[in-house]
Amino acid sequence: MNKKELAKFVGGRIKEYRKRNKLTQKELGEKIGVRDNTVSAYERGAISPEQDMLFAISDVLDISINDLFPEKKHTTSEFERALKMTKNLSAEEMEFLNQLIEKSLSMNDEERENFLESIRFTVEYYERMNKN
C-alpha cells in the first residue's frame, strides 16, 4: 500500500468512526483543534494527519490508533522469529536497530531506497573484509 492509498484508507476510517460517534466534521475539528476543512481533507486522504493529531483523533473517537490503519498481515511465527533473532542483542543494540527502522519509515520512497542501499553496501563491505 503506497502513501496515497494509506492516506485514503486512514481518512475513510476517520470518517467512519466520526459518523459512528455522531460528530460533524466541525465538531471533530473543534475537539482536536483544527478547522472542519482540515478534517475534510483528512477524510478524503488529501492530507495525512501528523502523529500527534492521529492520537488526538483516536482519543476523541474513543478508539485505538490501530483502528485507523489496515490490519497487519504478520503471522505469529514471523513475530516469534523476530523475537528469537533479538535474543542475544543488548538493549543498546536493539535500540540502534529500532532507530534504523524508524528512520527508514520516516523517509519518502526515494530517500528510503538510498538509505537502505547504503546499509546494503556497508553489509557487503563488512562481509568481504571478514571472509576468513
Walk me through this protein's architecture:
It comes from Lentibacillus populi. This is HTH cro/C1-type domain-containing protein. GO terms for molecular function: DNA binding. Residues 14-68 form the HTH cro/C1-type domain. Keywords: DNA-binding. The protein is an all-alpha fold and 132 residues long. The protein folds into two domains: 3-68, Orthogonal Bundle (434 Repressor (Amino-terminal Domain)), CATH 1.10.260.40; 76-129, no CATH class. 70% of the residues lie in helices and 0% in strands. It is built from seven helices and no strands. The chain has helices spanning 3-20, 25-32, 36-44, 51-61, 76-85, 91-105, 109-129. Helix 1 (3-20) packs across helix 3 and helix 2 (25-32) crosses helix 3. The model has no long low-confidence stretch (mean pLDDT 89).
The CATH homologous superfamily of the largest domain is termed lambda repressor-like DNA-binding domains
Overall, the morphology is: elongated
* SSE-based structural type: mainly alpha
Radius of gyration: 20 Å
Which range does the strand content fall in?
under 5%
Kindly identify the CATH topology of the largest domain: 434 Repressor (Amino-terminal Domain)
Structure summary, number of beta strands: 0
Any idea of the CATH class of the largest domain?
Mainly Alpha
CATH A-level architecture of the largest domain = Orthogonal Bundle
Spans with pLDDT under 50 lasting ≥5 residues? none
- What is the number of independent domains? 2
Distance between the termini: 42 Å
Helix content: 55-70%
What pattern of helices and strands is seen along the backbone?
A: HHHHHHH
Sheet with the most strands, sense and barrel status:
none
What's the helix count? 7
- The averaged pLDDT comes out at 89
